[in-house]
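1st attempt posting a full record on here, be nice pls
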Amino acid sequence: MIQKRRLKIQEVQHKVKLSEEDADREKAEGVQVFTDLKESVEIKLNELITTIEEKQRSTKKQAEDTIREMEQEISDLMKRITEVEKLSLSEDHLHLLQSVQSLNIHHQPPTKDWSQVSVPPASYEGTVVRAVSQLEETISKKIKTLVEVEVKRVQKFAVDVTLDPETAHHDIILSDDGKNVRCAKVQQPGLPDNPQRFSLGPCVLGTQSFSSEKLYYEVQVKGKSEWLLGVAKESVNRKGTITLCPLNGYWTIYLSNGNEYNAAADPSVVLSLKSRPQKVGVFVDYEEGLVSFYDVEAAVLIYSFTGCSFEEKLLPFFYPGFYHDGRNSAPLIITPVGVK
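the predicted structure (as tokens):
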């Protein structure tokens, strides 16, 4: 009995040590990431200020050049007026005539029609928006890199998942190897209505249950207009109408109507995705209370349920959707992790 307790103490101490190491690593990575982001923001801010100042300098130079040219014309005209006034005082008419002819021929100051000349103020419209858009693009690239690393990390916790025919609704068909599921055109006859089987919607659970540590699996959703994926508590209601939400023991995301993505939270959360996921990765950290969904090929975090309280075994949950006259006939396929 004493030995068991000593072993348990060692186990707890080991977990604390691992937790501290994970915390130190995450803090170091976090500091590096936010330092990089701060530098990116500062670079874009400096570029924005430089762009605005260069535009202002250009406008100011154009205005100064215009003013300088007009002042030169004024000076030339004033000089001409002075010369004419001096000549008007001369009593030598021959000299006056020669001087006037000389002024007209050789010293006519060039003048310009300034009525149509203007110096428009510099336009800064969209300057800040463009700068922020460029910053967003830079940050998006950094996020993509981070998620790629994150996906590779969680893929290390890959588990083997197969579908449990005892839970399969009579509207769906499972492959012989238990790796893919699709909705049938018609109900499958002869299936016993056992307690484990879903009775109302085309749902099926995984065979393997999980109650600790971390797990990850990937599902191909290519070619489908409707699907739902996630995990469910082992004790979830299988009969009658089911409301999919964490309160009822379901942590899922889904596609409906061909292009509407949602997280089945309470209330439902609309997901704005830039591309259609072809393969979805599902990651669960049981002890952390975390369920995350990834677009594997795009390296995008789709959604995360955090602060979850599981308290019992979890099972992978699949809903291939209805047949819809063949528009949703493609299967959900559990694929080997890391295989493109």
